[in-house]
Specification:
Blueprint: E1 2-3, H1 4-12, E2 20-24, H2 25-34, E3 40-43, H3 50-60, E4 66-71, H4 72-76, H5 80-88, E5 93-99, E6 102-103, E7 109-110, H6 119-126, E8 130-134, H7 137-149, E9 154-161, H8 170-173, H9 176-186
Parallel strand pairs: 1-9, 2-3, 2-4, 4-5, 5-9, 8-9
Antiparallel strand pairs: 6-7
Helix pairs in contact: 1-2, 1-7, 3-5
């Protein structure tokens, strides 16, 4: 399995600073450190709703690519989003699920079905246009360029383990400044 932060660093090098990235929980802390941008939308506090936020952005701004960095535990809290997203069929949405088999933000408790559930399989059954499952950094780096060019909705399961520890600054994550910076960045989209 790949380290999550290595995967995020590789992804950060493939997307533009003005692309919307919606990130949840532990991945959000890492993403803020790896790729600071006013176009980062941090979704926390309502587990499972990150996918709904990203879908709303994808529908609102159909000419702008929306990158969703979701967790497996978070996705389990809102599996209905898969069918809703597939039905809406936003061509600009790429839904990454960083699968580590735990509800990491809530103490690392194991998710149900961690060794048998296929999130990419669920997305495919729901009707996503493209579905992928990657578990090593080399495969991710070999495929990410073409995945980012696919007509969505696209779903990518990234089997990973935590990497380095990143600061978890909740005051910054929930600050009015981050919200204001995001609002300013997107007001002319």
């Amino acid at each position: 399995m790949m380290k999550r932060d290595d995967c995020l660093k590789s992804l950060a090098g493939k997307i533009a600073q003005d692309e919307i990235v919606v990130a949840a929980y532990t991945t959000a802390f890492e993403w803020i450190a790896i790729r600071p941008s006013p176009c980062n939308y941090i979704s926390s506090g309502a587990m499972g709703m990150t996918s709904s936020h990203a879908l709303g952005f994808a529908l609102a701004w159909p000419d702008r690519r929306i990158i969703l960095l979701d967790g497996d535990g978070s996705l389990l809290m809102n599996l209905g989003c898969l069918v809703t997203t597939a039905n809406a069929a936003p061509k600009n949405l790429i839904h990454f699920v960083l699968e580590n088999g735990t509800y990491e933000a809530n103490g690392g408790h194991p998710i149900p079905g961690q060794n048998s559930a296929s999130f990419a399989g669920m997305a495919e059954s729901a009707g996503y246009n493209n579905c992928h499952e990657l578990s090593d950094l080399e495969s991710f780096e070999d495929n990410i360029g073409s995945i980012l060019q696919e007509e969505g909705p696209t779903f990518v399961t990234l089997k990973c383990v935590p990497g380095e520890d990143y600061p978890q600054d909740y005051r910054h994550m929930h600050s009015a400044k981050l919200r204001e910076d995001f609002a300013e960045a997107v007001k002319n989209f």
